[in-house]
Each structure stands twice: as C-alpha cells, then as structure tokens.
Amino acid sequence: MCKVRFEQIEEEHLNSILDIYQYYVLNTTATFHDHALSVDEMKKLVFFDNSKYRTFIIIEDEVIAGYVILKRYKEKGAYDATAEVTVYLKTEYIGRRLGSLAVQYIESYAKTVGIHVLIAYICGENLKSINLFCRNGYFKCAHYKDVGRKFDQVLDVVAYQKILDE
C-alpha cells in the first residue's frame, strides 16, 4: 500500500506544482488560465496573506503527486466561514483516490480554522472533478452558462458545495 501524506507548501515546492498546473493550463479546460504561468504568478495562487488559507502538497511514496488549496471565498467579512477548495493531481495519479484523500484532508483542516462551507468551482465539462466532489458529499449549488472561452470552446462553470458541520 502506498504511503500518502500532506505537507504545507513551501517555496521549494513551487516548481513541482507549477509543472502540475501547467499541464492543466496548456492541455485542458480544468482551469481557465490560457497561458503558461511564471513561478511568480503561481506563487500568488498558492500562498496567502491570511494563515487560515493554505495550500498543501500531496506526497505519495515521497513523490509530489498533487496539491490541494483552501482559499478565501470572498473578501467581505460575512463570508469568513466559507472557503473555496481546489485539487490538482499529476495525471498519472488520477483514479487512485488521492483526490478523495485530498478533499477529506482539506475538510478536516478547514474545520480547525472555523470554515463552515466549502465550495468547488469546476468547468462544466470536467466530469472527473464533478464526480470527485459528488463522491465526497458535495452538491451542485450553481451553474454559470457560457462564462469561459478556451480552445475555441464556450464553457460553463458549476459550483459544488458542502456544509461541513451538518
């Protein structure tokens, strides 16, 4: 059985997670970034001023397999108990239940910092991510039609949420 652990991201991990993210940027509609990102741009996506919000790398058998982000939902104080969750895995690790482990890990962490609701925003055609969040108890709460354009496609965004303390 493979050993999986989560560690808070450090600067030394940036190139590894940038490589993971670049694949999705350049080859998929999983993210709406439409150009390769620099290390500095990636840094802004995964490091936060508020220590409540964090990125954790997913390590399987001493290899970085992906990362999971807990980030602020909106800047207004009334939203402080709501956060956004994002998971990215190296393609060779998809289908090995690491996504579910990452979601469960970030939910556990989120509860310790007072998060009540988690929301995942997903491209409407990204069925693997939709299934990941559904398997973990999230329900569809929004559908934004035709809000993105990438690779000459018009794309929807769907939001899935989970109330953590129910």
Automatic annotation (TrEMBL):
Residues annotated as signal peptide: none
GO molecular function: acyltransferase activity, transferring groups other than amino-acyl groups
Protein's UniProt keywords contain Transferase: yes
Domain N-acetyltransferase: 4-165
Keywords, comma-separated and alphabetical: Acyltransferase, Transferase
Keyword check for Nucleotide-binding: no
InterPro entries: Acyl_CoA_acyltransferase, GNAT_dom
PANTHER family the UniProt entry points to: N-ACETYLTRANSFERASE, UPF0039 PROTEIN C11D3.02C
Protein name: Phosphinothricin n-acetyltransferase
Organism in which the protein naturally occurs: hydrocarbon metagenome
